[in-house]
Amino acid sequence: MRDSSGWHPTAFRSHTIGQIVSGGADLVGEEVSIAGYAETVRGRGAIAFIMLRDGTGHIQAFAKKDNMEEATFDALQSATRESTIQVTGPVAQKRPPKTKEGEAPPAPEFEIQVTSAVILSSADAPLPVGVIDDVNVGLDIRLDNRYLDLRRAHVNARFQMRSKVLQYGRDHLITEGFAEINSPKIIAAAAEGGTNLFPMMYFDTPAFLSQSPQLYKQLAILGGLERVFEIGPAFRAEKHDTYRHLNEFISFDIEGAWMNDEDVMCVQERMIHHIWTQVAANDQNLIDVINEYKTSQGEETISVDIPQLPFPRISYCEAIVIVQNGGGEIEWGDDIESHHCDIIAAEYPGFHFLPRWPMAMKPFYIYHNEDEKGATGGQLSRGFDLNYGRDEMTSGGQREHRVDVLEQNLRNMDLDPKDFTFYTDGFRYGAPPHAGWGLGVARLLMVLTGAGNVREVVLFPRDRSRVTP
Ligand code: AMO
Questions:
Q1: Fewer beta carbons within 10 angstroms: which end of the chain, N or C?
Q2: Residue having the nearest C-alpha atom to atom 25 of ligand 1
Q3: What's the CA gap between 286 and 279, in Å, rounded?
Q4: Ligand 1 centroid to 442 CA: how many Å?
Q5: Of all residues in the chain, what percent carry a pLDDT higher than 90?
Q6: pLDDT at position 375, please?
Q7: Is the pLDDT of residue 206 over 80?
């Protein structure tokens, strides 16, 4: 539940439930109005107990027929679960339960003694997805009814965590001098290869949804913004159907001038370290809620183990040897696929960078140093990945700032430099060496919250079979 100490009264409530639960002793006798969802409604005859929940806590509302209008009492007593209700009345301290001799008295609990109430919206019954009951429904039904699924405490906690992670990441980059930008999402040319673009019509001109802010964050650097970051959507028309791919995802990108691949790897590990440190210091309550659910399901609980810096660096060439020694079939120049990553993860289960990939496997905008060759003489690049266990979190690299090499890279990759002049022309007027990365927010959250699927940490996921809700 959220700390609501700084929340102001609104048209519908004088206090949040959290404010009453935590400051109840000072409020005893004071008339308050609260509003929330009816988790349970109990009682018979002339009394009713309604457990109300808002985003900040739970509290019991105690209603007595002879304390209010009869029609209001009847409506309260017959309210369905999850209906939204506003109640007004004085705060009272609940009678403490009896304690055995020598036992410490429990912390005082409070309730509202209802004098008036309004059913703001009645919930249909039965609910398609249980909110407090542990009804076993599949992910698809949960996603169809996400508005209800989100009311479940552990699901809600994951999204609170998502907000925190973005906040801590942002805070960290700002302290390192990065400025937030927003790049266009309607674009004319592919940054990450032309096969997975979603086409659209931009008035009379064919255009696409952006796969990555890549080319634009680089143009911002060429424009002298020096250190930029963006948290925004990326769209990929990939026909993947996995636990870690979506067709729309939030990419957390940075780009920095006068930096190389190693410099931005350091930015990344410092940022992740900061996020983990802040979560460990401030958000154990969210971890506890998630763990309570995991325990109820017999799943392994999670803990926030602050990763040690620096993260290991395992060059592509070293990774190939690790996979080969581990019995995997791979040759220099092959992609390191998930089943290969499993072998590497056995040795490096946490965060680890994989720098210096073959140039032939990296996009045209990645820099290469002609002197750096791999085992078979193949050209190495300054592109890297960050993995956690078997999963890729990030790709990044130093960028090609030499315009003639950049154009040659495009040609080498069967792309026409004429389609990219809006980008390459930016390199003709003095281009700083620069580097950056793009991090999949949902993948990082999967690690932090112990979710087995990115859909668990994306509000309304878009995949091959889902465009609603
Ligand atoms: P890349 O294509 O590797 O690199 O994407 C960067 C990171 O974004 C996440 N990601 C995805 N997450 C969910 N569903 C998907 N379909 C998906 N595709 C990618 C991954 C991945 O590591 N321009 C470069 C970044 C850079 O060099 O700055 C890029 O987009 O976590």
A1: C
A2: 438
A3: 9
A4: 11
A5: 91
A6: 80
A7: yes
Query: CB under 6 Å to ligand 1: residues?
Result: 191-192, 212, 214, 236, 238, 245-246, 249, 251, 253, 392-397, 436-438, 440, 442-443, 454
The reported pLDDT for the residue numbered 420 is 94
Domains of the chain: 17-121 (2.40.50.140), 147-457 (3.30.930.10)
Q: Tell me the pLDDT tens digit for each residue of 99-130.
A: 888 888 888 899 999 999 999 999 999 999 99
pTM over 0.90: yes
Give the chain's length.
469
Return the amino acid letter for 319: A
47 φ/ψ sector (left φ>0, alpha ψ -120 to 50, else beta) = beta
Q: Tell which one of 228, 249, 409 to mutate to probe ligand 1, the residue whose CB is within 8 A of the most ligand atoms.
A: 249
CA dist 36 and 32 (Å) reads 13
Tell me the best of 181, 212, 245, 335 to mutate to test the pocket of ligand 1, counting ligand atoms within 8 Å of each CB and taking the most: 212
176: Cβ–Cβ under 8 A, 6 or more apart, which residues? 227, 267, 270
Q: How far apart are CA 134 and CA 148, in angstroms?
A: 13
Residues forming beta bridges with residue 163, ordered by sequence position: none
Please write the tens of the pLDDT for every residue from 37-95. 999 999 889 999 999 999 999 999 999 999 999 999 999 999 999 999 999 999 999 98
Q: Would you put residue 59 in left (φ > 0), alpha (ψ -120 to 50) or beta?
A: beta
To test ligand 1's pocket by mutation, which of 251, 265, 354 has the most ligand atoms within 8 angstroms of CB? Answer: 251
Peptide bond into 310 cis (omega under 30): yes
